[in-house]
Amino acid sequence: MRFERYNSGVRFTAAAVQIAPFKGDIEANARQIGAAAARCSKEGADLVVFPETSLSGYFLEAGTADVALSASEAMNKVAAQIGKPERDLDVIFGFYERADGAIYNSSLHASFSAGGANLVAVHRKFFLPTYGVFDEERFVARGRQIEAYDTRFGRMSMLICEEIWHSAAPMIAALKGAETIAAISASPARNFAEGTFANLDRTRRLLRAISEEHGVWCINAMLVGFEGGKGFSGGSVVVDPSGRIVAEGPALEEHILMAEIDLGEIERVRSQSPMLADLRSVLEDVTREICEANDQS
Q1: May I ask the CATH class of domain 11-296?
Q2: pLDDT tier at 296 (50, 70, 90 boundaries)?
Q3: What is the pLDDT of residue 234?
Q4: What is the DSSP track for the chain?
């Protein structure tokens, strides 16, 4: 299916919240998320994005099963803290999901209004890191789809940490019509040099490349705090469709990052640099080449 809609009249305010979760404490983290979301809403945010596993903490290993919830349970935990907002509010956050007899590292998009909470979309992490300090495949199952979905802010996708390091994931999201990608991460700080951390520098370069190649907005929310002696970097960013960082948060501290999103920028950028249209025009050949390469590997 082909998507070429540009929401040129849509503008909204997004907030990326760097949060330090209480390891394994769902109730405390739900209160934190609810309080931060309410504060962002009062400051004018329409969409609030929290990091990967912000409802539970990341390095839980064998304890992952103890904090895993269904998507509706996770949404209701946060909904109980947000209550009935004075204005419509959308929230994205990361959690460990229990579904279909398995546990996933997932992200959830919910909308909250005076009428209650509504589950908009759930994404299950497609690429699971199993190197360095990461061993996700031991404790969670892999997601099978990268989706784009309709919201009041246009068409969106959610990606989780490792997925932005693989070019195929944002490519699929863009081909499915995503205009905004919420990229949430729990990335331990490592290799400090030249005034920044190597993981943070790489993440920002990847997000800029994603936005520039596909003409999409990227809203990145990074975990902070310490778990098991590992410190998460923070340093969230918002990147416009030309690949320009329009807002960035500090490293190693809790922070709320606000940015204005103008979907009209997508049409302007894609008309000047039609990279996504070029990809669509050769997609059949690209797919064939990928299949042949896989057969030969």
Answers
A1: alpha beta
A2: confident
A3: 93
A4: -------TT-EEEEEEEE--PPTT-HHHHHHHHHHHHHHHHHTT-SEEE--TTTTT-S--GGGHHHH-B-HHHHHHHHHHHH-S-SS-EEEEEEEEEEETTEEEEEEEEEEEETTEEEEEEEEE-SS---STT--GGGTSBPP-----EEETTEEEEEEEGGGGGSTHHHHHHHHTT-SEEEEEE--B---EETTEEHHHHHHHHHHHHHHHHHT-EEEEEE-EEEETTEEEEB--EEE-TTS-EEEEPPBSS-EEEEEEEETHHHHHHHHHS-HHHHHHHTHHHHHHHHHHHHHH-
